Amino acid sequence: MSAPRIDRPAIPPDYGITKATEFVEWSRVEERLVADRLYWVVTVGRSGRPRVRPIDGLYVDGTIYVGGSPRTRWVREVGENPHVAIHLDGTEEVIIVEGDAEVLVGIGEEFATALSAASNAKFPEYRMTADFYRANGAIAIRLRKVIAWTDITSDPTRFQFA
User: Fold this and answer.
1) How many domains does the chain have?
2) Would you say residue 74 lies in a domain?
3) Distance (Å, rounded) from C-alpha 51 to C-alpha 73?
């Protein structure tokens, strides 16, 4: 993944962002994406109504990976509309992701092994195997834009990806 373009998000000046002099470091965002166990994923299906749910996830090589049964409404919605948003837990350090989801099937041995290793490092209680990922696939969420801040008046930051 190439380095993101960094600038200020479009936030009205009455939120105090005209005083902003700092930016959140991309490395800090990636640390949170790797460490946080839960992502709040928002999807929108044919009805136009958004749905949000907490989902366990992994951040590997610049992409978020989650799993879900194709029988669930939210996974069906990803098939209808791949645009998703993700918010990490907490309000002290805000990280909002916008991306495009793709249901992956037919994952190869090397990639399945990498996903199972990442999953076992983060969620050892699940005991995931490469065989599971080869058989069930995963949902890849490729980042388009990330907005982050620790203090909206000092460091609101927008990261955009090509």
Assistant:
1) 1
2) yes
3) 9
